[in-house]
Design a protein that fits this description.
about 300 residues; Nucleotidyltransferase, domain 5; 2 domains; two-stranded antiparallel sheet
Amino acid sequence: MCSVFGYSKQAYYKQLHQIEHRVAKEEMIVGLVNEKRALWKRGSGRNLHQSLQNEFKLHEIKMGRDKFFELLRKNDLLIRSKRQRVKTTCSYHHFNRYKNLIQGVTPLRSNEIWVSDITYLWLKPEDKFCYLSVITDLYSRKIVGHCVHESLSVSGCISALQQAIKSRKNKSESLIHHSDRGVQYCCHDYIRLLQRHEIQISMTETGDPLENAVAERIHRTIKEEFTSDRQINFSNIEEARVEIKKFVDFYNEKRPHRSVEWMTPSEASRCKGLLKRKWKSYWRKQGDWKELIEIEK
């Protein structure tokens, strides 16, 4: 029997036919994927595989999910992940951490507890981020200090703290400053400024955002409520500074708040005693995770 490269002629043509069949099948699948992607731009690989099952049956194609992903990868058809949320907290550093002093504590006056946090702001035309440091009075929900800054260095946080300290009238009353364990709040310059003004230092302990929920919520309010797009962006950092100042003034002076009996934060800052909230929290357990559903506008 005639042989080709050590294979029988029959085996050679059989293998050649299998290769041609596999290539044709892959080309057909790529074509089907491209048809889907014409409208469904970012359909995930798993969803694509599931959505193509009818076409696979019609063309008598059998391909599992792993092989399908290999084919997408080979043809550069895998969808890249979206830009991840900007990380503003770096807790891996050599500075001292402090205990959480406000757990279970309900403030009964202004300037009893301040909460601090950093978030990012999107500068769309420049395709980059700047950052917003905010210090909020936990009792009244009033923003007592803020700063828009270009980088995650401690200078922006210190500027916000200096503004808050300047706004404080009765310096003889005790005050706790609460934050996450980010390097900006743990570094020597920031800690020394707090100690110089005899402000007690409190920090989150578990990494749970609920330990600093009010600060997180303030950022969400600023970034979502002052734009029709639900995600605020600015042309440049100068515009961001001007607009954020307007938002903060409006938030403090004109925006009624459910957490302080529908008063504005500035009105609540002049009160004393327990302020009742006008929203409810619903807790539900999912495995080992605890989820908070908050109804607050």
